[in-house]
């Protein structure tokens, strides 16, 4: 301690001669030294966050400093010996400050030799820890680099180094140093540096590789092996010389290593969802679940710090097998089309809400010949970047809304095969609806519209020949608009509203509820996201059990501590018998209804139910199909901001369509995908509804 103080006085005399001029004595230097702070809080440096699939595959990384912490035992012994040899050969002998090194530096600097700083590894570690703390707290302007240190900075560094050595072992300090030190703008810490320059983990570094990286820390720019290979080789060989002189390696090892070239195998670091290896839009969705959740920080800035500097491991629900199949399918459907028509697939697991795949036929960043957008077709606007310019905000669901009216039909005690009058097309303004809790808005009457009233034209069906009496189930699996309205006319619309609400359906643009008293919403007038719609249909698949969608199943920090993540949130939303009634009818969609032309191979392979949907302009087309194991939303249509283009007279993959319908493109997309993946989540036959619910006169 006395020797350290003497060295401090010597440093003071050299660096700040004005102290002597002012009459400062040794006691003044000691008083100055004793008055310095002695406590240094060693916080973990910024580390890389990784987002993984449920089966452990990397989706993307997030970082401000590309760093992955590894324990000393997982580092090559060569890197430990190399760094000590070149940076602080007396590391295991001194107590934080090396008096011999200080005196040697003073003699060299005073005599006009090479200027030396005499910082030990412990002192360098102190500086890195202090600077990292300033960066983390947003005080980058206070960061002090080695060449900018004042006398006070230097002596403060010395005292903190001495105190640090009282708290930690040498190996702990060396481990901390090797995990925090800067190697390049793309690599902080030895693990990132090993991966960056040699594409190997730190544990596999060879002698020449370790010597190269050890030499790099002195001046990452000057000795960068990519931009300055000659300088880096000279520096590496100096490290090898030091290792030989200190007995760390043999002469043979030295000569063999010195004879090698730079030998780089560069792995460019890429971060963020734009660089995701798979599922960039799912990645974007997950990142915003973190950034929008106060559980990960009191404000946006704190949450960004957690995501980009916290070294989290975020294990998601995504199944890489389903994701690969979904991406291949949407690319096949409409991977590159001049009209930029959108295609998407999203799969949930009924009974858990786990999102298993999320794909669309676009790329996140511009690429030649590709449809690029950062709009996420599958989720609500708020689950993208928080405004409607960065999330598509859903699409009009069309006839995929009809099963919810049918579910309420059964809930109010009506029969599956009960006849309804689908010949009626006019429901004028002032029609006496049953509505116990609100007022119906809208009407269908060509006469009233011609008279200048705010009514729509008489109801239309997609095909002629269906304006007649028919069983309710027949009207649903053939997707007859007038049949659905014949049901609505006999129901309390407040019940339909409750059914839609309990299934969690809402506007994809602003999250507000869907007003079923607005008649246009009976046939899908309000845009909903594929995720929201798939969640509702998954409820039928799960025998009436609703589970909120979840994308994150586990989050741990760099220490392995488990943080808050999404937990299954399930409840009974629909009575099981009602769900079974809906399932029994939707199974006929593919057998003999509106989806019969989709792909007959699906039916018979697994028990499956589905519903087609098309909005009035044909610009949004759907198939929502499910087994008891998975539920998938398939969408094709205009996904660009505004969604104003009609789906008519378009050409996709060389096929011309006068108009598109749910079964034409979204249907085969869904069927081809389900044929590949449904078997991965085994399904059982749907339980049958009670006989009393079926009624007579079934078709």
What labels describe this entry?
5-stranded antiparallel sheet, 24 helices, Penicillin binding protein transpeptidase fold, elongated, 11% strand, 699 residues
Give structural notes.
It holds the Pfam family Transgly. This is Penicillin-binding protein. InterPro entries: Beta-lactam/transpept-like, Glyco_trans_51, Glycosyltr_51/Transpeptidase, Lysozyme-like_dom_sf, PBP_transglycosylase, PCN-bd_Tpept. Keywords: Carboxypeptidase, Cell shape, Cell wall biogenesis/degradation, Glycosyltransferase, Hydrolase, Multifunctional enzyme, Peptidoglycan synthesis, Protease, Signal, Transferase. In the C-terminal section; belongs to the transpeptidase family. It is elongated, with a radius of gyration of 34 Å. By secondary structure, it is of the alpha+beta class. Helix 16 packs across helix 20. The protein has a five-stranded mixed sheet with strand order 2-1-5-11-12. It has a five-stranded antiparallel sheet with strand order 7-6-16-15-14, sandwiched between helices. The chain has a two-stranded antiparallel ribbon with strand order 3-4. About 3% of the residues have low confidence. It has a domain of 195 residues: Penicillin binding protein transpeptidase fold, CATH 1.10.3810. Strand 15 and strand 16 form a beta hairpin. It has 24 helices and 18 strands. The N and C termini lie far apart (97 Å).
> Order of strands across the biggest sheet?
2-1-5-11-12
Task: Note the beta-strand portion.
Answer: 5-15%
Q: Percentage of helical residues?
A: 25-40%
Question: What's the main sheet like?
Answer: 5 strands, mixed
- The backbone outline, from C-alpha atoms, is elongated
Radius of gyration: 34 Å
Tally of DSSP helical segments: 24
CATH homologous superfamily assignment of the domain at 64-258: Biosynthetic peptidoglycan transglycosylase-like
CATH topology of the domain at 64-258, what is it called? Penicillin binding protein transpeptidase fold
Architecture of the domain at 64-258 in CATH? Orthogonal Bundle
* Uncertain residue segments: 13-26, 386-390
Mean pLDDT across residues: 89
- Name the structural class: alpha+beta
- The count of DSSP E runs of length 2 or more, i.e. the number of strands, is 18
Query: Gap between N and C termini, in Å?
Result: 97 Å
Assembly state:
single chain
Name of the top-level CATH class of the domain at 64-258: Mainly Alpha
